Amino acid sequence: MVEQHTPRSLIVTFYGAYGRAFEGPVPVAALVRLLGAAGVDAPSVRSSVSRLKRRGFLLPSRAGDGSAAYALSEEARQLLEDGDRRIYGGAEPSPEWLVAVFSVPEQERSKRHLLRSRLARLGFGAVAPGVWIAPAHLYGETRHTVDRLYLTSYVELFRGAHLGFAPTAEAVTRWWDLAALAKQHEEFLDVHEPALRALQAGPEPSPQEAYRGYLLALDSWRRLPYADPGLPRELLPANWPGDRAAAVFAELHARLRDRGAAFAAP
After folding, report:
1. Contact 1, 191 (CB under 8 A)
2. Which member of 150, 175, 214, 254 has the greatest number of CB atoms within 10 A?
């Protein structure tokens, strides 16, 4: 499988992995250098930064020497902090469920579409029209998201147990497409498991090699904990590839992240 890494996604990944370590905003020249190391040319960096600025993710600023730079907005920082808990496996699986119930008037159906799409991106499964479910440990991030979108007046959140009538493991197969989730984990493994074996067998990578390898691995991995929201292991099929994918990313993180930081340093 050939992975696709868009310039915009790589910029977001860079800020999540290394950009927050900068004291102040990241100079445009540094963005061009650091994204160039991951194969992104300067025009693509500049156009993607402009799109992220229009979306409110990045704010134009000045570096200490007066050169053009970009800082994270407060909303972007919250998104990245929420993402840390998912991407690096900090949240403990919960035996309870979070249920989002919403009703949006037909004349505001664009908001209904936005709410559905954001719940799906958070990893919720659909139980019925206007009823979505996720593991309860996603409560904080869900609350942040609904509040940030000014949709709290349409949504109610509940926490509790699944009491019937189908067995929970059977119900989960209706709420989530487990085959599609497994395929995403397997595609990650197809690329990054061989990369990890090469690291284990070869010499230590240079800081630039570690930086590039980590940025690409993280850019691939960070989508998976959203597609697969941390469902209880006992509800998943045997030999679930998510376990192996998480282990591969954890070792890549341990081997590459800090070494790559020497190349990414301000």
Report:
1. yes
2. 214
DSSP state of 80: H
The answer for 73, left when phi > 0, alpha when psi is -120 to 50, beta otherwise, is beta
Q: Record the pTM.
A: 0.87
Which residues, listed in sequence order, are joined to residue 68 by a DSSP beta bridge? 62
CB 181 within 8 A of CB 242: yes
Place of tokens 């979070």: 98
- Amino acid in the structure at residue 36: G
CA triplet 212, 257, 201: central angle to 5 degrees? 75
**Residue-wise pLDDT tens digits, 183-230:** 999 999 999 999 999 999 989 999 999 999 999 999 999 999 888 888
Q: Let me know: does 7 contact 44? Beta carbons within 8 Å.
A: yes
How far apart, in whole angstroms, are the C-alpha atoms of residue 165 and residue 151?
Answer: 31
**b/e code 243-253 from CB counts within 10 Å (16+ = b):** eebbebbeebb
Closest by CA position to 35, among listed 25, 44, 22: 44
φ, ψ of residue 69 in degrees (nearest 5)? -155, 170
- Residue 5 has what DSSP assignment? -
Contacts of 108 (CB under 8 A, 6+ apart): none
